[in-house]
Design brief:
The complex is a heterodimer of chains A (about 500) and B (about 325).
Chain A lengths: L1 H16 L6 E3 L2 E8 L17 H7 L4 E3 L5 E3 L2 E7 L2 E6 L13 H12 L7 H4 L3 E8 L2 E6 L6 H5 L9 H7 L3 H4 L6 E7 L3 E6 L12 E6 L3 H9 L5 E2 L7 H5 L4 E7 L4 E5 L9 H10 L2 H7 L5 E3 L23 H10 L6 E8 L2 H16 L2 E8 L1 H10 L4 E3 L9 H8 L13 H12 L3 H18 L2 E14 L2 E2 L14 E2 L1
Helix pairs in contact in A: 10-12, 15-16, 16-17
Chain B lengths: L1 H38 L4 H6 L5 H10 L6 H13 L13 H36 L4 H15 L2 H15 L15 H35 L2 H8 L4 H31 L1 H6 L5 H10 L3 H29 L7
The chains are: A alpha+beta (about 500), B mainly alpha (about 325).
């Protein structure tokens, strides 16, 4: 209510002076409005499965460990020790509480991890926690986690959704309503959430890093990319997720706005269906990939806000990124020749499936034009995003978009896609060597050795082309210049680090 | 005295009859929407889990939401709960469908009402002027404006209005919704742009209808008689002619209002207005069965209700219809 009446006052001020104050600040309280692409589906970390919770999740829930913007692991709620390769001992900070006052102790952590692993929860966290075998409370603030095998990405996993700890009291008492009234130990607590309208958070006094500088945060879903930017320019919102690349010049040209861009964690690729003609033949896949010029996609679909990719590990994961990968591209003549040498009759009919969002339709049209030049006959099939998963899993199309938001550990971009039984092996590609390399990379704990394993796997993947890699999209976000905040490559907002200048 | 009683009874009977006819209609709608959402390819659980769906997680959640039960069992469970006033819970968000619907219906109702009022305020005077000054510059202007209104898509008008009134002349908010109970002034402030956007499109059709029915009525004998009697022009137009032109206009407004309820999704999206249109479309994309079912059922019920209100207004406007 206080905010409302203050807004009313600014509204009247705006009406009379024709000037909208950029920020709402009254009696030393600061409040910012954040435009996000879509309303979160759920606030229960056990249920989060979409992109759309990313923007809000770290503000409500604090993971056990913390990732810095350059993806280094630091202690968060807990510090960690590794007595051996399969044992992790977490020690919680003393005196931690959740938003509802419940103590955040070893029992609470165990209750959360147990819940993630419980098959009845049906949580995607179960598979993220990988070979986690036992969770033991070894002290009031100490938890010992034992794995069945070494699992290199484990620390990154504990710094992500699977490490988020929610109040066990609230989970119990709220039941189904926990998904909308989430209670965590993050910098902000949930005040109210009106579907498709606003999610209001208030700074949490008991946050372990200290109460955040910005007292109130209101997340507002604004799905239309033009509307998001317009809202920022008009001062209705102060921070915007998902800036569409075509607006970059506009935002950069405005002194009152700040644009932040960083290489993202994900990739944009298309899955070949390697289980049926024509793409069961690696030469046909190579030819298609050879015909495509990712640079055109970077320019025409991303307006420069992306970089061409030949593999799944982006430059943001510096230690594992391989800039020596090679695969022939932008050569329709060579592609035509390759098809001829392989004895393939042209034109080769190919169906590309994309969701009906403008950028993907544009990409599909570029692919169509380029591949047709090399002797393919491409048709484009547009579907809605829910059907996409089904098309990918049932492999009902020849070439289907399969973008990935990315993970801070390369395992998250590789294992599920390229191991034979990987849940995201949409191409249905079976390569024993890559399967072994990726499994080895999971249990190898030495970073340099892991990087080498990933490089070897990526070389085979680039040659065999089960996926058509196109680009690594950048994370683009913008704010009013008066707001000081830090961008993470995953695009998730962590507003405990934000303050007004 | 006696006459009025019978009239009232007839009206009451008509209302009662309409209310009873709601039951089979809603029953039919419930079957159709239940089947339709399930016939659309896609699965609510797969949609919920997205790229992270593992077969085990899918199985666990399908069991939890009883999606593996035969459809007939699912239908009657849902129907039985409906009778107990329970719309179920959203599969996606875990929210109660009834609370999702109430929180989405009100914004849409306000927006539709405001848009209708704006459209009437523009369309009726314009239509009447165009008809009474047929073939003049005013008529041509009105026709041109309505053509403009009909052909401009609302997403375009909406964006244009935002650019003008929220960015260049920053006097109105670019988006958002404030419930009237929180702050009525702010509520109105946020309502202006979306209501104008939606109202412009509605006004065009109502203006055309007003013009053509007025033209018709103005040529009837009784209007000529009224003119011949020497009644003031204003009185002839508004008291004699316009009264009789109202029925088709009211019909059109009734139909449009019903369509607006289901069709505001574009305006709602541009202005981030948390209405029923956006709720329904999102739920369809997510295959969130309970939400789609509840939203369609309530929208259908409202549509029938609006038709009923339209019919009652007829009898108020035109006493002849009370006896038919």
């Amino acid at each position: 209510m206080k905010r409302r009446s203050f807004l009313a006052a600014t509204a009247i001020a705006a009406l009379t002076t024709g000037f909208t104050p950029a920020i709402v600040a009254a009696q030393d309280t600061t409040s910012i409005d954040v435009a996000i692409v879509s309303d979160p589906v759920t606030l229960d970390p056990a249920r989060m499965a979409s992109f759309f919770e990313l923007a809000v999740q770290y503000n409500i829930f604090e993971p056990l460990l913390h990732t810095t913007p350059d993806l280094t692991i630091e202690p968060g709620l807990a510090s960690y020790e590794m007595p051996d390769e399969t044992t992790y001992v977490l020690t919680l900070k003393d005196g931690l509480t959740f938003h509802d006052g419940t103590a955040l102790d070893a029992e609470a952590v165990k209750a959360n991890l147990d819940r993630y692993l419980d098959p009845n929860t049906g949580s995607p966290r179960g598979s993220e926690l990988g070979p986690l075998e036992s969770i033991e409370v070894t002290g009031p603030l100490e938890i010992t986690l034992k794995l069945s095998d070494p699992y290199a990405p484990f620390l990154q996993v504990l710094a992500n959704r699977a490490g988020m700890i929610a109040s066990p009291t609230a989970i119990q008492e709220l039941g189904e309503d926990f998904a909308t009234q989430a209670v965590g130990a993050g910098p902000y607590k949930v005040v109210s959430w009106t579907k498709n309208s606003e999610l209001t958070l208030a700074a949490f006094d008991g946050y372990w890093r200290g109460k955040p500088d910005v007292d109130q945060v209101i997340f507002r879903p604004i799905p239309d990319e033009t509307a998001r930017i317009n809202n920022l320019r008009s001062g209705t919102v102060h921070l915007v997720d998902g800036v569409a690349p075509q607006f970059v010049p506009q935002v950069e040209g405005d002194d009152s706005l700040t644009l932040k861009e960083s290489p993202g964690l994900g990739f944009n690729a298309f899955s070949f269906n390697t289980t049926a003609a024509p793409f069961d033949n690696a030469d046909v896949r190579r030819a298609f990939s050879m015909a495509v010029d990712p640079q055109v996609i970077v320019q025409a679909a991303y307006f420069g806000a992306a970089s061409p990719s030949l593999g799944a590990i982006p430059p943001s994961i510096g230690w594992a990124y391989d800039d020596t990968l090679e695969a022939p591209r932008a050569d329709p003549e060579g592609a035509r020749q390759m098809l001829a040498e392989a004895g393939i009759d042209t034109p080769v009919s190919v169906e590309i499936t994309v969701t009906n969002s403008p950028i993907y339709v544009r990409i599909a049209q570029i692919l169509q034009a380029q591949a047709n030049e090399a002797g393919f006959d491409v048709s484009i099939n547009q579907i809605d995003s829910t059907s996409l998963i089904t098309v990918l899993r049932e492999r009902t199309s020849d070439l289907t978009m399969s973008p990935w938001s990315g993970r801070s550990d390369p395992d998250g971009n590789m294992f599920n896609y390229f191991t034979i039984d990987g849940p995201n092996n949409f191409p249905g590609w079976e390569n024993g060597e890559v399967d072994r390399l990726l499994k080895d990379a999971r249990i190898e704990t030495d970073e340099a050795a892991r990087a080498k394993l990933y490089s070897e796997a990526q070389k085979i993947i680039a040659d065999e082309a089960p996926l058509l890699f196109l680009v690594f999209p950048q994370t683009l976000q913008a704010s009013i210049s008066d707001l000081d905040w830090i961008q993470w490559p995953d695009g998730a907002f962590r507003l405990q680090f934000a303050k007004m200048k | 005295m006696h006459d009025i009683r019978t009239e009232r009874q007839i009206v009451a009977q008509q209302i009662l009859g309409r209310l009873i006819s709601l039951i089979p209609i809603l029953f039919g709608v419930s079957i159709v929407v239940f089947l339709l959402v399930r016939l659309v390819p896609g699965d609510p659980v797969v949609s919920l889990l997205g790229m992270e769906a593992t077969p085990e997680a899918i199985a666990a959640l399908r069991l939890r939401y009883a999606l593996d039960d035969p459809w007939i069992v699912q239908y009657f469970t849902w129907l039985g709960n409906l009778f107990a006033g329970d719309f179920g819970r959203s599969i996606q968000s875990g929210r109660e469908v009834s609370s999702l619907l109430t929180s989405a219906l009100l914004p849409t109702l306000w927006l539709s009402l405001a848009a209708t009022i704006i459209s009437l305020a523009i369309a009726i005077p314009m239509g009447v002027v165009a008809a009474t000054r047929r073939d003049t510059a005013a008529d041509a202007m009105a026709s041109l404006l309505s053509l403009f209104g009909l052909s401009m898509p609302s997403f375009w008008i909406g964006v244009l209005l935002i650019l003008l009134f929220a960015i260049h002349l920053p006097i109105l908010p670019a988006s958002g919704y404030v419930p009237p109970s929180d702050d009525f002034g702010l509520f109105l402030w946020h309502l202006v742009l979306p209501a104008i956007t939606l109202g412009t499109a509605l006004a065009a059709a109502i203006m055309r209808m007003t013009r053509s029915t007025m033209l018709e009525v103005l040529q009837t004998d009784y209007v000529r008689t009224a003119r011949a009697k020497g009644l003031p022009r204003r009185k002839v137009i508004w008291t004699h002619a316009f009264r009789n032109a109202q029925i088709p206009i009211i019909t059109l407004i009734g139909i449009q209002f019903g369509q607006v309820l289901g069709g505001v999704v574009i305006t709602e999206t541009i202005f981030s207005w948390p209405g029923i249109g956006k709720l329904t479309v999102d739920a369809i994309f997510a295959r969130d069965y309970p939400v789609v079912q509840g939203a369609v059922l309530v929208t259908a019920g409202l549509f029938v209700f609006i038709n009923l209100v339209t019919d009652i207004i007829y009898t108020v406007v035109d006493p002849r219809l009370r006896l038919s």
